[in-house]
């Protein structure tokens, strides 16, 4: 083999994204007839989520998972897809394609290449939903004063804008906090939440709201990338897209399992009415404006990225 | 090759008296330099120390220590121990038993054994010394008692195991209860046995009269109020397990000032000592993380696991080797790091051998618990000794007898998996 | 002179550490109390605790802890070695640790500088800059490095062997 690359991410090996990354790497090795080999370090074995981008910059690893929401001080533009209620696409494949288009072009140019890394593989989770341990809440009035866990950033703003009380809780405390009623619910996406097993402590979850997507970028150190022959580059990019459908299917299966677990607790998935969603959107739109003006104020192309994403996420 | 050399270097440095935190950081950094070069080594040194401290979950470490310091500088703890002594003083080893009991209480609150060892060391070591307890025995009791915090739920390793393997955390917690009780029993029996054999390690006093005993009770209530405040706070859902440390410290401050005679000087000393103990513990955590990243990147542990899986042995044979592997790895690496590092490879293997995920999670946690007190890297021994100005080697000597009990409990969990699986099976 | 300045800086850092510890206790208590009693948590406590208070509590205490010989070690073998050997080992240990923590300090300064230069802030409801938090780590690690170097110098001259004998509170410089 000619190249051995270290790949690091933070997903547990049982997580669909980790399984999918392994499949991608194996496919690259196979397609290049073994010219590229990988040593893969999942589950934060090489660095914590927030440090993975640094790991790619200082060559501790060559390819890393960069989570814009954990690095929102350094990858603010890439958090655009976490903004709530943008666009009307619900098909996960189309959402993934749209984010891939944005990342590989605009985001690479505006924010990743200046930090000497390049996005070569992207994923977008299922949309964030409102999950509750008690009775279902269908209106803004019902949400008022409810304690909802958010993982910070845009999500925290969304929870506050909807009139609920945003609560910051470290992930390992989430399960017991739901169990004992420290919080009334959480914003989360079903496939990831299933990994934390919080469905055991939940009754209801919306399934028709898009409170934002969680962006996943796999970036490669730009010097390493430029050192790879063009045919290998092409194979890596092509295979990265090729392996996406299986991960979407795995996410769907988890979504269904999650729903089954909710039913066992006497709840299930439920929908927010269109009229009500209209009201939610009015509350949430200022977050969009805030996101744009904040970035534009720091000489970043916030408006341009926001418009492009709106365009890609709407058909 | 490099991995072996660096492990030998680490052991040599620790044995020859390099401060443990430095030994871990230096040998880890050297190993990283040899394995991946200077730039990546600097990269690890850039992010690891910062990220290990900028961590909300770990805020329980300084805050629980502060709670212990505040209680210990006032009279509240002394009154509590005096009461224990009046009631149980005629039983040999009464203070050691009280320390285990207090650790069980702490374990129900907290999932961090480091915080437990530091807090209980500050609280109970001075009292055990005051009553003439053997130094190594006392340190052993505290170090090993602190490990109960990860066996008895809530438990940080069980949560991380649950997330990494997608096993139900609720069931894991249930599964940990009986092994936690069994472990507690093993420690109690070990204390009773040791004190029977060497009565001088735990001097007893005369039996106190009932009126003397009753007279101690009115002074115990501040401690009980604090326990109820924190426990009640957690179980009513008012606060999370992490926040409990802050509420406990604030409660200890108020109660100690109001009822424990704590004044400016004692308060200052409590905060000051907390900072030093915290720096000592985090220096070791940082060193252990750096060293852990080095071992990971050599991929030697991973290769060893793959090798074990390919051995032509019956399932129980492979399982035994895996458990042995966990115990040996526990000599050198931080317990959470081991779980994160090995589970991606070990978990699928164990599943393919037909073992139950919940059972294996508890068994792994049991080995992690043992690793906390085995030399040369025995976090709880370092912390217990460091927090009480004791000697590390005394701590390791004191722990050895308890490890026998731990091994027996581990064997029981392996031979009778029902001990683990019984409670979770009830909620299906 | 160097000794006195270093000790003064360490003491100053110690006070900041105390302040951070007290703030951590009060803020987290107030946050959880406010959330439970009035459904009014304090926005930003999580971020401030993590990025500033914890970093200050940990990093600002390193040097003082070294000055008072608070970093635990195994002494059994060391005590049996002849004094000159002990002295050589001690100097080597301190220099090696100083090198590693010097690297940590340098890299933390770089991160802090980069974050400040790029104007990086957190993005929650309560937004705080991330750069200064790295600088706290950098200053703490720098003073710790200086303390290790000074101790190495003392050990080489044969002073301060308190590091090897067991006197936890050690000599005050
Ligand atoms: Na516990
Ligand atoms: Na150990």
Automatic annotation (TrEMBL), chain B:
InterPro entries: DctM, TRAP_DctM. It comes from the Bacteria. It is found in: Cell inner membrane. Pfam families: DctM. The chain crosses the membrane at residues 6-34, 55-76, 96-119, 131-152, 172-195, 216-238, 244-262, 274-296, 316-347, 401-427. It is a multi-pass membrane protein. Residues 7-419 form the TRAP C4-dicarboxylate transport system permease DctM subunit domain. Keywords: Cell inner membrane, Cell membrane, Membrane, Transmembrane, Transmembrane helix, Transport. Belongs to the TRAP transporter large permease family. PANTHER family: C4-DICARBOXYLATE TRAP TRANSPORTER LARGE PERMEASE PROTEIN DCTM, SIALIC ACID TRAP TRANSPORTER PERMEASE PROTEIN SIAT-RELATED. The complex comprises the extracytoplasmic solute receptor protein and the two transmembrane proteins. This is TRAP transporter large permease protein. It comes from Tianweitania aestuarii.
Automatic annotation (TrEMBL), chain C:
Pfam families: DctQ. Residues 24-157 form the Tripartite ATP-independent periplasmic transporters DctQ component domain. The chain crosses the membrane at residues 12-30, 42-63, 91-113, 133-150. It is found in: Cell inner membrane. Its main location: membrane. It is a multi-pass membrane protein. The keyword Manganese does not apply. The complex comprises the extracytoplasmic solute receptor protein and the two transmembrane proteins. Part of the tripartite ATP-independent periplasmic (TRAP) transport system. This is TRAP transporter small permease protein.
């Amino acid at each position: 083999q000619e190249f051995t690359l270290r790949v690091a991410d933070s997903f547990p090996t049982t997580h669909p994204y980790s399984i999918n990354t392994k499949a991608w790497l194996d496919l690259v090795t196979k397609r290049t007839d073994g010219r590229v080999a990988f040593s893969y370090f999942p589950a934060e074995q090489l660095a914590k989520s927030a440090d993975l981008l640094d790991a790619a910059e200082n060559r501790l690893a060559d390819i890393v998972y960069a989570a814009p929401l954990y690095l929102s001080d350094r990858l603010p533009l890439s958090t655009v897809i976490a903004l709530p209620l943008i666009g009307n696409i619900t098909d996960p494949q189309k959402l993934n394609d749209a984010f891939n288009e944005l990342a590989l072009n605009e985001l690479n140019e505006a924010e990743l290449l200046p930090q000497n890394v390049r996005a070569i593989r992207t994923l977008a989770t299922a949309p964030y939903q409102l999950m509750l341990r008690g009775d279902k809440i269908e209106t803004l009035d019902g949400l008022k004063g409810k304690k909802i866990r958010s993982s910070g950033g845009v999500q925290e703003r969304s929870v506050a804008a909807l009139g609920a009380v945003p609560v910051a809780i470290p992930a390992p405390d989430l399960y017991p906090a739901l169990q004992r009623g420290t919080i009334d619910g959480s914003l989360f996406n079903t496939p990831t939440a299933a990994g934390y097993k919080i469905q055991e402590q939940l009754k209801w979850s919306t399934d028709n709201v898009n409170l934002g997507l969680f962006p996943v970028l796999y970036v490669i150190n730009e010097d390493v990338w430029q050192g790879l022959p063009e045919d290998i580059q092409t194979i890596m990019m092509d295979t990265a897209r090729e392996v996406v459908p299986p991960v979407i299917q795995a996410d769907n299966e988890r979504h269904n399992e999650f729903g089954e677990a909710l039913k066992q607790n006497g709840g299930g998935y439920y929908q927010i009415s269109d009229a009500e969603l209209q009201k939610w959107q009015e509350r949430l739109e200022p977050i969009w404006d805030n996101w744009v003006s904040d970035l534009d104020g720091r000489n970043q192309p916030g408006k341009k990225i926001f418009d492009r994403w709106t365009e890609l996420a709407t058909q | 090759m490099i991995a072996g050399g660096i492990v030998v270097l680490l052991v040599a440095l620790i044995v020859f008296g390099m401060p443990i935190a430095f030994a871990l950081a230096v040998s880890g950094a050297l190993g990283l330099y040899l394995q991946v070069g200077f730039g990546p080594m600097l990269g690890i040194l850039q992010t690891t120390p910062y990220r290990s401290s900028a961590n909300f979950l770990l805020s329980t470490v300084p805050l629980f220590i502060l709670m212990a310091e505040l209680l210990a500088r006032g009279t509240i703890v002394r009154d509590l121990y005096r009461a224990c002594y009046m009631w149980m003083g005629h039983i040999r080893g009464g203070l050691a038993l009280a320390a285990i009991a207090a650790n069980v209480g702490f374990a129900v609150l907290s999932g961090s054994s480091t915080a437990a060892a530091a807090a209980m060391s500050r609280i109970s070591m001075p009292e055990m010394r005051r009553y003439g307890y053997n130094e190594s025995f006392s340190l052993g009791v505290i170090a090993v008692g602190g490990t109960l915090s990860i066996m008895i739920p809530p438990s940080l390793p069980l949560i991380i195991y649950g997330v990494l393997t997608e096993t139900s955390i609720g069931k894991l917690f249930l599964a940990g209860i009986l092994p936690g009780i069994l472990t507690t029993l093993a420690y109690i029996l070990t204390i009773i046995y040791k004190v029977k054999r060497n009565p001088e390690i735990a001097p007893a006093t005369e039996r106190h009269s009932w009126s003397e005993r009753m007279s101690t009770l009115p002074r115990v209530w501040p401690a009980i109020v604090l326990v109820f405040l924190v426990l009640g706070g957690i179980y009513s859902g008012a606060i999370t397990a992490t926040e409990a440390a802050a509420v406990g410290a604030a409660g200890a401050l108020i109660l100690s000032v109001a009822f424990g005679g704590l004044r400016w000087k004692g308060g200052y000393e409590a905060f000051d000592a907390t900072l030093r103990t915290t720096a000592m513990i985090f220096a070791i955590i940082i060193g252990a993380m750096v060293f852990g990243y080095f071992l990971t990147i050599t991929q030697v542990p991973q290769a060893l696991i793959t090798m074990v899986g390919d051995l032509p042995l019956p399932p129980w044979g492979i399982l035994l080797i895996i458990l042995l592997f966990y115990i040996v790895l526990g000599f050198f690496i931080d317990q959470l790091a081991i779980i994160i590092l090995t589970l991606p490879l070990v978990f699928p293997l164990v599943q393919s051998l037909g073992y139950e995920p919940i059972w294996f999670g508890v068994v792994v946690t049991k080995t992690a618990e043992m690793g906390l007190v085995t030399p040369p890297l025995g976090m709880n021994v370092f912390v217990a000794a460091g927090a009480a100005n004791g000697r590390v080697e005394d701590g390791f000597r004191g722990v050895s007898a308890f490890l026998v009990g731990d091994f027996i409990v581990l064997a029981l969990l392996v031979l009778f998996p029902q001990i683990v699986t019984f409670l979770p099976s009830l909620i299906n | 002179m160097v000794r006195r300045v270093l000790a003064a800086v360490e003491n100053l850092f110690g006070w900041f550490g105390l302040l951070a510890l007290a703030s951590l206790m009060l803020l987290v208590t107030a946050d959880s109390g406010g959330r439970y009693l009035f459904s009014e948590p304090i926005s930003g406590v999580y971020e401030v605790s993590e990025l500033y208070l914890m970093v200050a509590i940990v990093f600002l205490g390193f040097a003082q802890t070294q000055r008072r010989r608070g970093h635990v070690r195994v002494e059994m073998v060391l005590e049996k070695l002849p004094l000159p050997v002990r002295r050589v080992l001690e100097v080597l240990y301190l220099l090696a640790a100083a090198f590693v923590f010097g690297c940590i300090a340098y890299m933390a300064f770089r991160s802090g500088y980069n974050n400040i230069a790029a104007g990086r802030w957190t993005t929650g409801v309560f937004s705080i800059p991330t750069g200064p938090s790295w600088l706290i780590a950098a200053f703490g690690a720098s003073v710790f490095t200086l303390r290790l170097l000074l101790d190495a110098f003392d050990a080489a001259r044969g002073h301060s062997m308190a590091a090897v004998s067991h006197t936890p509170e050690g000599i005050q410089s």
